[in-house]
Amino acid sequence: MSLIKTVKRYKNRLARRFSKEIKRQQFNFYCDWTIITTLKVLASEIEIPVYVLSEHCLQLGIQEVLALMQDQALRDQLCRHLVRDHLLTPVTKPQSEPISRRLIRLRNVKNLLTLLEIMKGPEEQAEIILGLFKKVGKNEEDKATE
Fold first, then answer.
1. Are residues 83 and 115 in the same domain?
2. What pTM did the predictor assign?
3. What is residue 75's predicted lDDT score, i.e. its pLDDT?
4. Cβ–Cβ contacts within 10 Å for residue 54, how many?
5. Which of 9, 50, 91, 108 is the most exposed, fewest CB within 10 Å of its CB?
6. C-alpha to C-alpha distance for 94 and 32, rounded to whole angstroms
7. Residue 21 located in a structural domain
8. For 2-6, 102-106, 124-128, which range has the lowest pLDDT when averaged over its residues?
9. Whose CA is closest to 128, among 109, 104, 144?
10. DSSP labels for 59-91?
11. Mean pLDDT across the stretch 1-12?
């Protein structure tokens, strides 16, 4: 009986070593309970497993941090924020945290692409895009005059 178990263990070890599947690893760290409950509620609303949403949120956060690391002033501001609001406080409130400008831009682009997909003809799509370019041009002119 133990010989069969040993052979199975060896076979599983070889399969893990030479497998080409992407393995997920588990992060074991302390996290604020409001973040955990928010993730659970969102995952249940979207009807996906919690780890999928958690992995997605980590990817977005990493992209945001990498974007901030390019500028030294933003990097210093990020370090101060992490120490002040996450390291030195026992509780964080994700609902009260401001949404990043980058995330707002991504959401706006996603909404624009959804709107363009709804439009059937290229004339309507071109009209929307030209209207947006006109708005952007007006905003740039207003900023330049200020």
1. no
2. 0.48
3. 87
4. 18
5. 91
6. 9
7. no
8. 102-106
9. 109
10. HHHHHHHHHHTTSHHHHHHHHHHIIIIIIS-S-
11. 78
Domain boundary among 79, 97, 115: 97
Q: What six digits make up the tokens of 26?
A: 């588990």
C-beta separation of 78 from 65 below 8 A: yes
Mean pLDDT value across the chain: 77
What CA–CA distance (Å, rounded) separates 59 from 53?
Answer: 10
Q: What is the pLDDT of residues 44-96, one digit of tens each?
A: 888 888 888 898 999 988 988 888 888 898 888 888 888 877 777 666 555 55
* Distance, CA of 4 to CA of 112 (rounded, Å): 59
pLDDT value, residue 13: 78
Q: Cα–chain-centroid distance for residue 58?
A: 6
List the structure tokens of 127. Answer: 């009209």
18 located within any domain: no
Question: Residue for token digits 């080409």?
Answer: 20
Domain limits for position 115: 99-139
User: Is-contact 115 109, C-beta < 8 A?
Assistant: no
Tokens standing for 14? Answer: 């070889």
